[in-house]
Write a structure and sequence with these properties.
- By secondary structure, this protein is mainly α.
- The protein has one domain.
- The chain is 73% helix and 0% strand.
- α1 runs antiparallel to α2.
- The radius of gyration is 14 Å and the shape is elongated.
- The protein starts with a helix and ends with a helix.
Length: 67
């Protein structure tokens, strides 16, 4: 039982982290090259955080569903 609680907690953390990274990537993509949270992310460079956010978000949802 405790293993399932850890998996759900870890999955919730990954989901929240993934959503935050996805939001950052979307704001950075729409900022037209202006610094976002002190980081200069423009055009194609916003693709990497987007993919990372999708991976975190998908793995978190998967962990929650499988536990």
């Amino acid at each position: 039982m405790e293993k399932n609680n850890f998996r759900r907690s870890f999955g919730a953390g990954l989901t929240i982290l993934g959503a935050a990274v996805l939001l950052f990537a979307l704001v950075a993509f729409l900022s037209d090259g202006k610094p976002t949270l002190g980081l200069q992310v423009s055009g194609a460079k916003a693709f990497a955080p987007f993919v990372l956010g999708l991976i975190f978000f998908g793995s978190g949802i998967s962990l929650i569903n499988n536990s």
